[in-house]
């Protein structure tokens, strides 16, 4: 790496060195690492509240979305000391670790640090840690709606409206977002009334029984064609879901985008709910954080 490819910057009082800013990470659109960092810096006001206190898993693409990628849970050895970490148990670790040192991205410098690592996708669990780094009970319920071709996000929207009604009857307010890929997710603040996976599974099974021609609640892929799989298992504490406002590693820099319910109700084509980084920045200017609980 040539010295010219390294750029020292100061972000909110923290010293960082950015590198290879002209590297193209999304070849189809020519979207560079500099643009990735710019997007995450500008979206930070609405993104950071959804990362705060949540152990971070990233998916890194050092050579862009068409190159090799890998998930990373353990904070890299070169992570600055000012990045908060939480050492948590790692049952079933593929690398035989007893614990993992997760990064907790609570501020703009930490976000820029990871963007510079080409960590395009940010994934977090449905729970947070306390000030001492200890895991707290889940505070969020999530349903991941995955369409089995030829079904698309249009069919996911129909299922989302069904779920909204069921959740509302239980006193839970659902918030929709796209996955940034082919499906969508529904979130709700969780009050701990029971184990969230058990609750989500029961709702998914009930809707699948009521609409067997449209919905499936089991993971067997042979049952999914033309239907929407309600993945309730994302509520397992060991699992993560792509964060609101995270980029996705598609051909274009699409984003997991919070939605208005009227957009869900009016969706007629998959392209209706495809939003790129520039679209989402404009939406933030217009709507603020659509995923806020306020």
Automatic annotation (TrEMBL):
Residues in DNA ligase D polymerase domain copies: 32-291
InterPro entries given in the database record: LigD_pol_dom (IPR014145), MtLigD_Pol-like (IPR033649), NHEJ_LigD (IPR052171)
EC number: 6.5.1.1
Pfam families per the UniProt record, alphabetical: LigD_Prim-Pol
Keyword Chaperone: no
Keywords: Ligase
GO molecular function, one term: DNA ligase (ATP) activity
The protein's name: Non-homologous end-joining DNA ligase
Lineage: Bacteria, Bacillati, Actinomycetota, Actinomycetes, Streptosporangiales
